Structure formats: structure tokens, C-alpha cells
Amino acid sequence: MTKTAKLHSRTISRRSFLITAGGFGVVVAFGGLPGNALGATVAPAAEGNYHPNAWVSIAADGIVSIMSPASEMGQGIMTTLPLLIAEEMDADWDKVRIVQAPSDADTYGNPGFYGVQLTGGSESTRGYYDLLRLIGAQTRKIIQASAAGMLNVSASELTTEPGRVVHAPSGRSLGYGEVAATGELPDPLPQASEADLKTREEWRYIGRRDIPRVDVPAKVDGTAIYGMDVQLPDMLYGAVLRAPVQGEQPEAIDDTQARAVPGVTQIVPLSYGVGIIGETVEATKRAKDLLNVTWSTSSRIRNYTSRQLLEHYRSVGRDLSQTGVNAFAEGDAEAAIKGAARVIEADYMSDLVYHATMEPMNATALVTGDTVEIWAPTQGPTGTQGFAAVVVGTTPDKVKVNVTLLGGGFGRKAEADFIVDAVSLAKEVEGRPVKVIWSREDDVRHDKFRPLEAQHIQVGLDADGNITSWRHRIVADSIFARTMPDLFKSQGGHDDVVTEGAHFNYAVPAHRIDYIRQDNGLDIGFWFAVGVGYTRFGIECVIDEIAATRGADPLQLRLELLRDQPRARNVIETVARMADWDRERDGRALGIAYSDAFGSHCAQIAEVSLNRQTGEIRVHKVWCAVDPGVAIQPRHIEGMIIVGITNGTSHALFEQINIVDGEVQESNFDTYRVIRMSEAPDIEVAVVPTAGSPVGGMGQVGLPPVGPAIANAVARLTGGVRLRHYPFLPERVLAALNA
């Protein structure tokens, strides 16, 4: 089947469904929730009448406007995806303007997400890559056909160069603007196939380092529009007081003092809290603080204490009688372990983690009758349409979504709770827009955290120390059970986001992965690298334990286990050269880790020192070699890797959410510790693409290896002390040293 046929088959087989389990969460649509919203633009859209398709328009002055279908949250996708169209249509990049695509899944949906408009999972480039290149190639053929009519020649005689159609035999040419001004669209429109795509040798833009991101200038000069920047005529402001324990509801509301605050216009009881509407942000905040609410006490989350639960999770992982759901099996791992000469067993654990986006949750909504317009920093326009329609009692096609820039996303802004806030309050003041802003305290306490998680890993070795079997048990709650219950059920209770990354490409004869769900009621969600962030922690640390058992170099052991994986071996060998792996360090040690998650190969080495008196770890430098297959924008890939390593270092050393009897103990950055600039390591990145390989995802690739690389460096520095619990808090490090 050709790539074109695959895309078509996805289009005709899509279906839609809306998920509301566990309160307002994520909407997933396989198929269309149609809409025709005009999104926020990064640059003014050209007023051109030449529209070869829904993705491109060309003005008489030669300005080419290209739609960007994904949400820009700092990952540079607003440059990367339009660049693919510009490459294949031979646009002059200096004359390209990018426009945020409308919320129209039928037209702009991601094939990698079965047609839904959702940005996440490192799936944007992978999902859109083939489609957008074909769109660009088709656009070029349409322009050539129009120019052929204007020049009275055959389209087959024409070629293109950036922004221009050339007829070499006569020496004549037409700029794209000239074609747009007087050319007619051919009927029927020519179609494009894989054969029409440029070869790598013909690429003008893909792979270049000198193409800047289109979103950066506005961010530098302050003109960029984030959700927080939205200002509309006659706009009101909103805030919501939520229960201190998830799942509780207001039973009695004393709003006497809140109503007396100047500027407060309405107090709105909600099923999950109390809304305040006012003329100013300050008024809503003051009124919120003055509300006296009696909350219900029946939520099962009141039984949730994270420290106790994590210990329970570890015991479940060790209890092999609790089988859970088999996620993957190759060979008979259980039998092989029983027959092994030696078995290595290890537990690895991860605390709850907060998303910590720079921009807290916010959204602006306007309800007029049965129509809704929304301005929001959302990762999921399709989901936004669906949930807004539920709140108002309308249909998704009557919901218009304007996607602003996002001040960070990391999966949090794929949720819909902040959207529901804005639409619920706007419904109370029909005809006036309402902008809801979460405080940082709201954001911390009511986040959809990365799952609490424990892993139990068993590895069987033969008499020579060779791996004979690998059994991996993952104990955690489910994200899919809340956000995609139909999919969760169809997979037999397996959550492949929670277990993501456990299926590796190391050569082992028998391999088994089990998922044992723990349902304790807390809403957990998609977090930067989700499952891979902790499954690779366990895997890569155990690889080092095996190397220590064999007396082998951990880098060489990885190369041995990846003997049939040339791309993997290349990144490991490359990063070893970068870090001078074999050189002794005074008072420091190196640790290595590798990941093949999201279709990209990534190897990292961390240089670490340790204060044995305080238990504090210092990461001095991280080297990284990454193979994304196709490196569309190498310099931007380096930037994303740096973000991932910095974020990964922060979550490995500092970040944790503690819940006691259902209440989140942290509230702001004074209690939720993140990495400081002075603590960030030096980072060196090498992008080593492999010709002929498919494009890999990049948004989350940098995070998974850094934590295990740090842990493995500490083990080498201390003669084998293993850190098995994220984050590596000083007291945990001291406990490991003294064990």
C-alpha cells in the first residue's frame, strides 16, 4: 500500500467518541468534530485569492501563507510543519507567513492521532510528515499547471525554484505572486504521489541549521499572544475555588463577604467548586479567598497518601501472584528465570510529578446562544470543541477555538478542566467573554500528575553472565482508564502510555512486560515523556547492574546487546567519544543511558559529583548524541534535547508531589522544588541523522536517559551504591550510602 493510500484509508475509517469518565478530562476523537475557527496568527495572513488547497494561500505580492496544524508550546513545531509544505512546493521561505490552523479535525487532523487535532506524544512531526510533504508537492503541481496555462506551454516543461516557475526552453518564468494574481486553478486539480516528492539531494530547507523559528521574534519583542495575553472588549474575569480533596463537592456556600468585594459580579455554584466572576482579576482573587465553603467528605481520594501507596505498589510488584495484564511477551521469560544461574532483582520507584508549565492554566470563552468561541493555550482543539459543546448543550461544530501560543504544555494542556471553567462561567453571563485564570497554587494542587509508579525487574543470567530472560512488572494507576475508557477496555485493561518504553531493542532471548493497575481514584495524566521517563530509569540502571555483575564496561555491554542495531550503536559510540568515556575524572564519574523511544535513538553520558556529607548530587555536564532519522531542523533538535535534559535533571533530583489524606502538600515553587539556573548542567548535543530512516519524534526524547545516566554515574562514583527512587533527594542518597 502506498503512503497516499494509507492516508486515505485512515480518513475513511475514522470514528468519533467523547470521553467524560472521572469528571472533565481529555477528549479523543477519531474523526471529525468540524469547525471553522480562525486561529491566532504568528504573522499577518496574506490576503490572497489563490487557494490551491486548505493549507496554502498565495497573494499577488508573492507572500505565501501556510497553515500550522499543531499547537506551539515552545517545541518549534510552528516552524517545522509548515517548512515541510514550503520545501515540497518550492516556496521562498523569506516570503512565507505561518497561520495557526482552525479547529477543523477533518482538514487539519493529525494522521498519527487518527485525525484528531492534538499536539503531544512526540507525534506531530511523525504524524504529519508524509501528509504535509504530499500537500506541498500537490501545491507545486497546481502552481505549475496554472503557470502552464499562462505561458501556453505544457506543465511537464516547467520546473520550480523558490517562489518561481521556470520554463527553461524559452527562458521565461513567473513568480508565484504573478501566478496568484492572474492564474486560474486547474480543473481537475492535479494530485500528488510519493513519486512527486523531492529526493534528499533536492532539499533546500530540510536539514538546514540556519532557518530560524518563526515564533521567536514575537516572543522576544513581547508581541506574542499567549492565552494569558488575550484581551477582548467588555471582558470579565473568572476564578474557581476547588475542593482541597479531588472529587468533593460544595455542600454549603457562605458567599456574603465574597459578594461584598467591589468589582465582583457573580458567584456561581458548580458541581466541582465555586466560580467567581468579576470586573478585575484582583476582585475575583479577593472574593475567592473570602468564600466559606463546606465541602463533602465522601471522596475516595481521602484515603490517598502517596508515600504509603508507593510502598504498597512496591510490594505488589514483588508479589508475582498478582499477574495483571500482559503487555508484551517474547519467549518464556518466567521459565528462563527459574532456570537461570543467577537472578538480578531490583525495584525502581517514581513519585508523583507536577507539570510546572511557565503559564498556568487559563482560557477565555464567549457564549452566545448555542454558539461558543474560545481563546486558549490548548494542546487539543478537537477536545476543546467537544467539552465546550457538552457544557453548553450544543454541538462541536458550533464551537470555534482560537489556539494561542502555549507557555509550556508537557501534556497538561491536553486536558479540558480549565476550558470547562471558562465555558461554564461564560454561560452565566451570555454575550460577554470571561477569562479564567488559575493561580499557581491552583495549578500545583489540582494538576493531573504523572503517575505514582513502582517497577519490579527480574533478569536471569547464565553462568557466563549473559542475559537469558527479562521480566518487567509495572505497577501504577491508568491514564487511559480516565481519558480513553473505551480504548482501555478494548486493550483488556492495558495502558500502553503508562508502560511505554518498557519494550526495548536490546537483544534478550525472553522478555515479558506486565502491567498491574492500581485504581486509587486520583486523576493522573500525560506528563513529559510519560511512561518512558520512568521505565527507562529502571531498564538502564539494571543494565549497569548487570555490567557490574559481569565486571564489564556498561557502555560495551550496551553495544553488545545492540549488536544488530546500527543506529543505536552509532549514538552510543558517538557520545562516548564526545565525553571521552575512558578518561579518569578526579572526584567525578560518568554514567551512561540509552533510549529508542518515540522512534529516535538517544544516548547520554552524565558527569556527576557527590557530597557524601549532605547527599547532594551535582550534575556538571551531560553529553548527548541523538539520531532522529530525518533531522528536519538540526539546531531546533538540539534545543529540544537541551530542554529535555534540563527538565529530566530537575525531575530526577528534585521534583515530587506529596499527597496526605487526599490533600496535595505542595502549593508553589517554594514547596515544589525545581532546578535552578545555577544547578543546570552544561549540555553538549550532537545530532547524527541516518539517511533512509523514517522521521522520529523529538519533543520528549531528551528526558528519559538523563535520570538513569545520573544514577549510574553515582553508582560508579560510590563503588556500586544504587539509587532506585525518583527523585534522588539528599536524604534518600544518604540512606543508600549508609545501607
From TrEMBL:
Pfam families: MoCoBD_1 (PF02738), MoCoBD_2 (PF20256)
Residue ranges occupied by any Aldehyde oxidase/xanthine dehydrogenase a/b hammerhead domain in the UniProt entry: 221-299
GO terms, molecular function: oxidoreductase activity
PANTHER family registered for this protein in UniProt: ALDEHYDE DEHYDROGENASE (PTHR47495:SF2)
UniProt name for this protein: Carbon monoxide dehydrogenase
Biological source species: Paramesorhizobium deserti
